[in-house]
Amino acid sequence: MLSYYSKLSAEVYDLDKYVGRSFGDVEYYQERLADCKGPVLEPGAGNGRLLIPLLEKGFDVDGLDVSTDMLDICRHHCEKRGLETNLFTGRMESFSLEKRYEAIIIPTGSFLLLHQREDAVRALENFQKHLNKDGRLLIDIFLQKDVSLHTVSTRSWETANDELITLETKLVEVDYVHQYSLSHHRYEKWKKGALLETELELFPLRWFGVEEFRLLLLQHGFKDITISADYQYGQYPTNTSEIITFEARV
Fold first, then answer.
1. What are 168's strand-pairing partners?
2. Which Pfam families match (predicted)?
3. 10 CB contacts (<8 Å, ≥6 apart)?
4. Which of 55, 136, 169, 233 has the CB geometry, 3.0–4.6 Å to 103, for a possible disulfide?
5. Is CATH 3.40.30.10 correct for 7-143+207-249?
6. What local confidence, expressed as pLDDT, does residue 150 receive?
7. CATH of range 152-206; options 3.30.230, 2.20.25, 2.30.30, 3.40.50
8. Is the dihedral of CA 183, 166, 44, 227 positive or negative?
9. Backbone angles phi, psi at 176, to 5 degrees
10. What is the SS3 assignment for the chain?
11. Does the pLDDT at position 131 exceed 60?
C-alpha cells in the first residue's frame, strides 16, 4: 500500500519547504487570485507553505490533505500566527464537502501523486463538483526528465534538537505504458550516532504531456484553458525543466 508524508517525511518537508518558501508560486498564486472574492480550496495543502501566505494576505482559504501528520504541522503554524482556517483530511479524488469554492489550487505538482490515470480523472471531476459556476482550477505539473532505474541520491537535514535526518531516494519502477514512476524514500533520524527512527515511504509520480493534460481538462468539462511556464502567465513551455501551470474555468 502506498504511504507518503507520514511523521518523518512530514518533518523533513517542513524543514525543507518551510512556510512562505517560494519557488515563484507564492507570488504567482497571490497575483492570479487577486480578483477572487469567494473561498479558495487547496488540496494537498501540506504544511501550509503556500496556504498560510494566502491567509496572511486576506484570502479565504481552506486546506485538504491525505496526510494527518502534514495537517497537524499546518494547524500548528496557523495557531502560532493566530490564523483561522478549515483543514480537512481527504483524498483529492474522493473528498466531499458541502462548501463550493471560487477557486481550487494545486501548486508544485502535488496532483502527480495520483499516479493512476483513473484517480487523476476522478479528482478532476471532483474538483469540478466543488467549484462555483465559472470557478477556476489552477494546477501545476512538471515533466519527469530523469527516469533511470535504481538511481540513488541522499540528502540530510539538521533539526532544532541537534538531530540529523537523512533521506535516501531510490527509483525502483518506471511504467512507460501507464506513465508513472515509483521511488523508495528511506528516512532515518539520528542523534549522537544512534538511530532514533526510520521510515520507508513509497513515492509515486505520474507524468502528463502538456497537450495531453490540456485535452484531459477539456474532456472533463473545463474551458478557457491557459498554459503558463515557470509562473510567467501565458508563456507556453519550451523546455523540460519548467513548472507548467494550467488555469481553467468550469
1. 154, 186
2. Methyltransf_25
3. 47, 67, 69, 70, 72, 73
4. 136
5. no
6. 81
7. 2.20.25
8. negative
9. -75, -30
10. CCCCCCHHHHHHHHHHCCCCCCCCHHHHHHHHCCCCCCCEEEECCCCCCCHHHHHHCCCCEEEEECCHHHHHHHHHHHHHHCCCCCEEECCCCCCCCCCCEEEEEECCCHHHHCCCHHHHHHHHHHHHHCEEEEEEEEEEECCCCCCCCCCEEEEEEECCCCCEEEEEEEEEEEECCCCEEEEEEEEEEEECCEEEEEEEEEEEEECCCHHHHHHHHHHCCCEEEEEEECCECCCCCCCCCCCEEEEEEC
11. yes
Domain ranges of the chain: 7-143+207-249, 152-206
Give the up-direction half-sphere exposure of residue 71: CA atoms within 13 A in the CB hemisphere: 17
Check whether 29 has a pLDDT greater than 90. Answer: yes
Residue in this structure with the C-alpha cell 515511504, named with its chain if needed: 201
Specify the residue for cell string 501507464: 178
Q: What does the block give as the cell for 65?
A: 490533505
Q: How many residues does the chain have?
A: 250
Q: What pLDDT, on a 0 to 100 scale, did the predictor assign at position 1?
A: 43
pLDDT at 3: 62
Residue with cell 492570479: 32
By DSSP bridging, strand 61-65 and strand 40-43 are parallel
Encode pLDDT of 194-225 as tens digits. Answer: 999 999 999 999 999 999 999 999 999 999 99
Residue 140 has pLDDT above 50, yes or no: yes
| Assessment of whether the complete model's pTM goes beyond 0.90 | yes
